[in-house]
Amino acid sequence: MAPEPDSPSHPSETVHLPGPSFLPVVVAFGLTIAVVGVVISKVVMVLGVVILLAATVRWIRQARADTAALPLEH
């Protein structure tokens, strides 16, 4: 019979998880529209790229704000 492994120690820090966001879905939508626009027309492709870039910039800003709100120990 093998000895039981020691129980894992408790973490010394709390885990920070970002809040829910719709931005990953919007980024995926913009990317999809841009790729479909390559086949359909340049106007549709440009619309998809604009959606993609706007959502990506907003997502990065949101992530930076979440990170800045963390305590200094992190």
Structure description:
With about 70 residues, this protein is mainly alpha-helical. About 60% of the residues lie in helices and about 0% in strands. It has 2 helices and no strands. α1 runs antiparallel to α2. The two termini are about 40 Å apart. The model has no long low-confidence stretch (mean pLDDT about 85).
Brief summary:
By secondary structure, the chain is mostly helical.
Looking at how many chains there are and whether they match, the oligomeric state comes to single chain
> How many β-strands, per DSSP?
0
Backbone shape: elongated
**Overall mean pLDDT score?**
85
Distance between the termini: 42 Å
Question: How many helices does DSSP assign?
Answer: 2
Derived from helix and strand composition plus strand pairing, the structural class reads mainly alpha
Q: Which band does the percent of strand residues land in?
A: under 5%
Q: How is the biggest beta sheet arranged? A: none
| Helix share, percent | 55-70%
| Regions with little confidence, pLDDT below 50 for 5+ residues | none
Entry keywords:
single chain; 74 residues; 2 helices
Q: How would the blueprint of this fold be written?
A:
Layout: H1 23-40, H2 42-68
Helix pairs in contact: 1-2
